[in-house]
Design goal:
With 394 residues, the chain is α/β, with parallel strands linked by helices. It folds into 2 domains: 105 residues, Urease, subunit C, domain 1 (Roll); 275 residues, Metal-dependent hydrolases (TIM Barrel), CATH 3.20.20. Helix content is 34%, strand content 22%. The chain is built from 14 helices and 17 strands. Strands 1, 2, 3, 4, 5, 15, 16 and 17 form an 8-stranded mixed sheet that branches. The chain has a 7-stranded parallel sheet with strand order 8-9-10-11-12-13-14. A two-stranded parallel sheet has the order 6-7. Strand 12, helix 9 and strand 13 form a beta-alpha-beta unit. Helix 3 crosses helix 4, helix 5 runs parallel beside helix 7 and helix 12 crosses helix 13. The longest helix has 17 residues. The chain binds zinc ion.
Length: 394
């Protein structure tokens, strides 16, 4: 197995305080990283790097763990440019817009869905995302939901069954019937292809009792819960997520003090998705409040065609720093180690011996520039499980 050293790193973000100074990012300056196969085998000062077969000169750039995008919806067809255009002209967002994508997704072939998925994954990888979670939720029939999960599972281990995205249009007058379908035949068909189960717990989607029934049924089939919670209004989603030991409560925009307190005393990560607030001109989630209370925070894109059509984690980092009260260090941690926590993984989201060699090299000496230079393509090179992805700029 050949080994490679990446040396001449101005700032190495390890997310391991034992490797750098005592801060959560565990930064090492004038650093090197050694990769062997798909793993990291050594980190430390450049001057002490061991001999290796290959060498990459980081030329004074910063190296970070690859971004862990723990919340996306990438299996769909069509786009909603017109809806976005209308909303930016004053029409409020409602969960019903999902039906547009459901119709387009059902009408698409497997090849069309997979081509769109691959295009978005490539886009995300170029911007530094080396691990992503993605969900079903635009099929809403047993056949279409299981198809979405099968396609997603070809590209990631982090696959989430979201049959309970909205009540399928065919069941508009019978939501209880749809919950019975999701917890019965649909779950049976979908569980073999997924690791997680998710519910959109929101007015106009699923209430607390329905969400509990769906997540509990999923858990009985071996799926672990995560919840779309408290995005558009106050509600029971966060408390339910904590009650069921969900890995993550996602959005967390409208929180009571009791919600924040429940998260702070749980293993449930609060995953913030500022692309959604950006794209719907909604009030930002208050990351500062959560962090000050001791809640673990993750940052993700929520990439989807309706409410957040961005695959860019750096963009979300910039928004979180500018508008959600996070420091640059906190935002970078949340987009890497925080995402890993939201997926209950410790083999990603850090640069330390034993972790996967998922890395990105910036055209900048510090990770702070991800927020300082918003919108600039700073990611020069990405390694995914040790495989170097070349950036082919002209
Ligand atoms: Zn979502």
């Amino acid at each position: 197995m050949s080994s490679t050293v990446i040396s001449n790193i101005a700032t190495l973000v390890t997310n391991d305080p034992s490797l750098g100074d005592a801060s959560p990012l565990g930064p090492v300056h004038d650093a090197a990283v050694v990769i062997e196969g798909d793993r990291i085998v050594w980190t430390g000062a450049s001057s002490k790097a061991p001999a290796t077969d290959n060498r990459v000169d980081a030329e004074g750039g910063a190296v970070l763990p690859g971004f862990v995008d723990s919340h996306s919806h990438l299996v769909f067809a069509g786009d909603r440019t017109e809806e976005f255009n209308a909303r930016m002209s004053g029409r409020p967002y409602s969960a019903g817009g999902i039906r547009t994508t459901v119709a387009a997704t059902r009408a698409a072939t497997d090849a069309q869905l997979e081509a769109n998925l691959t295009r978005l994954l490539t886009e995300a990888l170029r911007q530094g995302t080396t691990t992503f979670e993605t969900k079903s939720g635009y099929g809403l029939t047993t056949e279409d939901e299981s198809r979405a999960l099968r396609l997603a599972a070809r590209h990631t281990d982090e696959v989430t069954f979201l049959g309970a995205h909205i009540v399928a249009p065919e069941y508009a007058d019978d939501p209880a019937g749809y919950v019975a379908l999701v917890t019965g035949e649909m779950l049976d068909a979908c569980a073999p292809h997924a690791r997680w189960i998710d519910v959109f717990c929101e007015k106009g989607a699923f209430d607390g009792d329905q969400a509990r029934a769906i997540l509990t049924a999923g858990r009985a089939k071996g799926l672990h819960p995560r919840v779309h919670a408290n995005q558009l209004s106050y509600g029971p989603g966060v408390q339910l997520a904590v009650e069921l030991d969900a890995a993550s409560a996602d959005h967390c925009t409208h929180l009571t003090d009791a919600d924040v307190d429940a998260l702070a005393h749980s293993r449930t990560v609060a995953t913030l998705l500022p692309g959604a607030e950006f794209s719907t001109r909604a009030a930002w989630p208050d990351a500062r409040r959560l962090l000050d209370a001791g809640v673990t925070v993750a940052l993700s894109t929520d990439c989807n065609p309706g409410s957040s059509f961005t695959s860019s984690v750096p963009f979300c980092i910039a928004l979180a720093v500018r508008d959600m009260g996070m420091t640059p260090d906190e935002a970078v941690w949340s987009a890497t180690a925080g995402g890993a926590r939201a997926l209950r993984r410790d083999d990603i989201g850090r640069v330390a011996p034993g972790a996967y060699a998922d890395l990105l090299l910036l055209d900048a000496p510090s990770h702070v520039q991800l927020a300082y230079r918003p919108g600039v393509p700073l990611v020069r090179t990405v390694w995914q499980k040790g495989r170097k992805i070349e950036q082919r700029w002209v």
